[in-house]
Amino acid sequence: MRLNSQVELDVTSLRVAKISTANPNFAQEVEAWKSGHVGQRVPKYFLLYIRIAGASQRGLSKLCIAKLPYVLVAPKAKPPVESKQDVQASRLLARINAGTTCYTDGNRSWKAVAEDVKKQILVKSVSHRNAQFTNNLKGPKRKGASAIGGTQQLDRCWHHLKRFVACNLKTKVKSQINAAILDKAFQFVWRYNASTQDATERLASL
């Protein structure tokens, strides 16, 4: 699926899981934490936020999501924000046509990656950190693009997606993240996109 014109970009967490330091299924993530926190005491457990990145074209039922790499944080640490590596791993910008205006919540990684791919994608941001969720944007504006910043449409998608991912699903199964959580998330996306497609388009997307 290709996205164009005006696209909102954001990341959300579906669940939070407790991961024991001794869990062999996350040994690589534990070592990554140790490498980034040299000299710090290793906690008995970590928190793992099951994150997905999303891109939604304004005005249309067109939504793409991607699972982000697992990152462990200490129990009292802030949730991880999307890094430049996360944005690159999502490959969402590869789905966006050149000349598109993208709207984000202020995370600078999207703009950094957009500049790297050199697709003439213009990234406009508000600042959730400063409780700014929508705003009249300043600076250059492309023809046909809105001057209203924010990720309101994608935020609504997140709300409905999380309701669709049933709360009775276990977060972990046999010491691993329950694969059904992401399966349900992608099911929601297919249904969301199919709501405006005819039967031929739906079959082609399978």
Quick rundown:
It comes from Durusdinium trenchii. The chain has a single domain, classed as Ribonuclease H-like superfamily/Ribonuclease H (Nucleotidyltransferase, domain 5, 2-Layer Sandwich), CATH 3.30.420.
Describe this protein's structure.
This protein is α+β, with helices and mostly antiparallel strands and 206 residues long. The chain has one domain (6-197): 2-Layer Sandwich (Nucleotidyltransferase, domain 5), CATH 3.30.420.10. The chain has helices spanning 27-36, 84-90, 108-117, 152-164, 179-194, 199-204, and strands at 6-20, 45-57, 63-67, 72-73, 101-104, 122-125, 135-136, 148-149, 172-173, 176-177. The strands form three sheets. Strands 1, 2, 3, 4, 5 and 6 form a six-stranded mixed β-sheet that branches. Strand 2 (45-57) and strand 3 form a beta hairpin. Helix 2 crosses helix 3 (108-117). The longest helix has 16 residues, at 179-194. It is globular, with a radius of gyration of 18 Å. The termini are close together.
